[in-house]
Design a protein that fits this description.
The chain has 212 residues and is mainly alpha-helical. It is 68% helix and 0% strand. It has helices spanning 3-21, 36-41, 44-68, 76-91, 93-102, 108-138, 148-152, 155-158, 160-171, 176-191. Helix 1 (3-21) runs antiparallel to helix 3 (44-68) and helix 6 (108-138) packs parallel to helix 10. The chain is elongated.
Length: 212
């Protein structure tokens, strides 16, 4: 396994743990008895937070995997940038649980939960963007397939998430359920190939934006 392969394998483990922990926040209704169906129905905020956050983390993993498919070597700076990004990923089950708990309130608490959730997404977008900017600054860590000059030109498109997610923070003060829905739609958007990694002499290979 090459240097980038070791980093990706470690990162995959963090993504896998984070995405698995999400389901632990969906609790079994206590003492529901004959009202189990209605009790399960009342837990819709937990299902919504789980589904959206699972999708978000899944798209983050896909984007991370795609970018690392073009990295031949790593250095100390990239390792720390990757760790910073993984810190955001590993923490996502907590804001997801917060959203599940306060989503339906429609009061200040639900808005606060949505702000925290969106804030974590902003943090992830910024760390992923920082990693991409570092990778394209010199291009010394890419393999020979990558057109470094063209990859550097994609920086502003990679930064879109850093602009869109703060807007979601503002939306959190209006409606928590709407904010969660917007994050789900953004994840679907980033599931498609928004910012290909430019390669030499042929069409760009698939990649993605700051997704998630």
């Amino acid at each position: 396994m090459n240097e980038s392969g070791r980093v990706e394998a470690f990162s995959d483990g963090v993504f896998a743990i984070a995405i698995t922990l999400l389901v632990l926040e969906i609790k079994v209704p206590p003492h529901a008895g004959d009202h189990l169906w209605s009790a399960l129905g009342e837990m819709w905020p937990s299902y919504a937070a789980y589904a959206v956050t699972f999708l978000v983390i899944g798209i983050m993993w896909v984007n991370h995997h795609t970018v690392f498919g073009f990295i031949a070597r790593v250095d100390r700076v990239l390792l720390f940038l990757n760790l910073l990004m993984l810190m955001c990923v590993a923490a996502l089950p907590w804001p997801a649980a917060l959203m599940a708990e306060y989503l339906r309130g429609g009061d200040a608490a639900s808005h606060a939960a949505a702000v925290v959730y969106s804030g974590f997404m902003v943090a992830y977008a910024l760390t992923f963007q920082a990693m991409w900017w570092y990778l394209t600054k010199r291009g010394h860590l890419f393999d020979e397939r990558v057109d470094v000059a063209a990859a550097r030109a994609t920086r502003m498109r990679f930064a879109v998430g850093s602009v869109v997610y703060p807007i979601a923070v503002g939306l959190a003060f209006v409606s928590a359920p709407l904010t969660l829905a917007v994050h789900g739609l953004l994840a679907v958007y980033y599931a498609f190939n928004q910012v290909p990694v430019p390669t030499r002499g042929k069409a760009p290979e698939p990649a993605a934006g700051t997704g998630g």
